[in-house]
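testing teh design pipeline on a random one, pls ignore if ur not involved
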């Protein structure tokens, strides 16, 4: 499954959590989150949630598609698949079968910045799933037949999810154009020609130097105490030795000199589609309040049917059948701000783009009105609150933040930071961040293949 911090050795991991003693809350006013580290460098986060006798275990590895070596794009995602190939003691698909037999569920996902695995299960089986994950961290089946099988699975996944979807193909091309030489421009699932090169040697090297306890964060949310998690973690993960890691590259983000434009015509496209991606500041690199202002702007501009783009393009001017915007900021390097629209039949796609540009110019010139601004902020905070009522989302909130270099405090304070966003701060990011030279614009049109 695909979804769009530096490596820590044992001593560095311990230093990261220094000042957060075992059994001590991460913040005095919030007794819900506890952090500690095992001797082998595995960072552990415990989020007690006693509403039901279940637990969610998430193992986040600080390795993703941006770490793929040149010529082998898709290796991180491919290896996510390999982690389900089994070990000598838990062969084949027995990992998933064992979890299911005990009433649990499991899955995994990969992004440019990390690879994460999770299980949800009754609390009495927590040590069982910990032992399963600890086993495949050191004893994974990396035989040639297994590698060939999963390589074919990944290529078929790519055909189904990307190659047969014109909009996804367009986005893939735009990402490459937007990011220039930065690895964020490579698709997480990989270019098909490079995925075909992945063999057992590449898989083994990846495993040896990436899948180590000192390169991971364990998040456990559920009906547990920090003492229980520590005891189970030491009995399972604690037996896995730390390993020497490959230092993560810190690629530069090349400056863009102007907008990129791409027009694609395909026989299988029935409805035109416009998408524009902007390279903007992320939560990890933004100035205080900047990322939150971008999040609020995305909600105001195109978050739902009350947003400016929808009201202006769909309801008022009847130019589009759909329009929206989003902000993706939980990444190690630059984030992305996206705008999309689907023109109504008979409406030229460039007319829709001109209308979008007029709305953006207004955002950059005039602070947003208070009622709309307050509604957008309330929607964002409410959505985050409702999602974190789900135990998996709760665990994900901490794992995603920590694995890209943020802190538990950043998770706790996010709602307050959203509430602090003003109309002037939205105007500032509209004028400074969402700018033409940081954009890649794509047209997807019905027509014949070139």
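output:
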């Amino acid at each position: 499954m695909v979804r769009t911090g530096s490596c820590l050795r044992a001593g560095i991991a311990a230093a990261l959590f220094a000042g957060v003693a075992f059994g001590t809350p991460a913040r005095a006013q919030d007794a819900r989150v506890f952090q500690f580290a095992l001797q082998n460098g595995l960072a552990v986060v415990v989020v007690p949630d006693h509403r039901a006798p279940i637990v969610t275990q998430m193992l986040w590895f600080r390795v993703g598609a941006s770490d793929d070596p040149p010529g082998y794009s898709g290796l991180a995602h491919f290896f996510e698949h390999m982690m389900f190939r089994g070990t000598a003691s838990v062969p084949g698909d027995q990992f998933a079968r064992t979890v299911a037999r005990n009433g649990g569920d499991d899955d995994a996902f990969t992004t440019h910045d990390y690879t994460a695995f999770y299980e949800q299960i009754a609390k009495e089986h927590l040590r069982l799933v910990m032992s399963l994950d600890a086993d495949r961290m050191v004893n994974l089946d990396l035989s040639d037949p297994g590698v060939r099988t999963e390589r074919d699975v990944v290529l078929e996944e790519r055909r189904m999810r990307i190659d047969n979807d014109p909009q996804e193909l367009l986005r893939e091309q735009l990402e490459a154009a937007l990011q220039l030489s930065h690895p964020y421009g490579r698709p997480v699932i990989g270019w098909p020609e490079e995925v075909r090169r992945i063999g057992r040697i590449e898989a083994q090297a990846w495993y040896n130097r990436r899948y180590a306890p000192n390169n991971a964060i364990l998040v456990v949310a559920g009906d547990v105490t920090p003492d229980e998690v520590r005891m189970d973690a030491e009995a399972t993960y604690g037996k896995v030795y730390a390993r020497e890691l490959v230092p993560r590259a810190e690629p530069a983000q090349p400056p863009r000199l102007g907008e990129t434009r791409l027009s694609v015509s395909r026989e299988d496209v029935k409805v035109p589609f416009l998408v524009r991606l902007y390279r903007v500041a992320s939560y990890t690199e933004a100035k205080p309040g900047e990322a939150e202002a971008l999040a609020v702007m995305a909600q105001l501009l195109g978050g739902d049917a009350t947003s400016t783009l929808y009201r202006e393009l769909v309801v008022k001017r009847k130019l589009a059948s759909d329009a929206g915007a989003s902000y993706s900021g939980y990444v190690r390097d630059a984030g992305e701000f996206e705008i999309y629209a689907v023109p109504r039949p008979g409406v030229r796609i460039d007319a829709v783009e001109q209308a979008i540009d007029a709305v953006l110019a207004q955002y950059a010139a005039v602070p947003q009105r208070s009622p709309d601004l307050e509604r957008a902020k309330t929607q964002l905070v409410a959505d985050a609150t409702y999602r974190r009522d789900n135990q998996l989302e709760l665990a994900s909130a901490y794992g995603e933040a920590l694995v890209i270099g943020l802190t538990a405090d950043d998770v706790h304070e996010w709602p307050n930071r959203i509430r602090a966003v003003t109309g002037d701060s939205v105007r500032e990011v509209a004028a400074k961040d969402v700018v033409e030279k940081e954009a890649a614009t794509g047209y997807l049109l019905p027509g014949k293949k070139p």
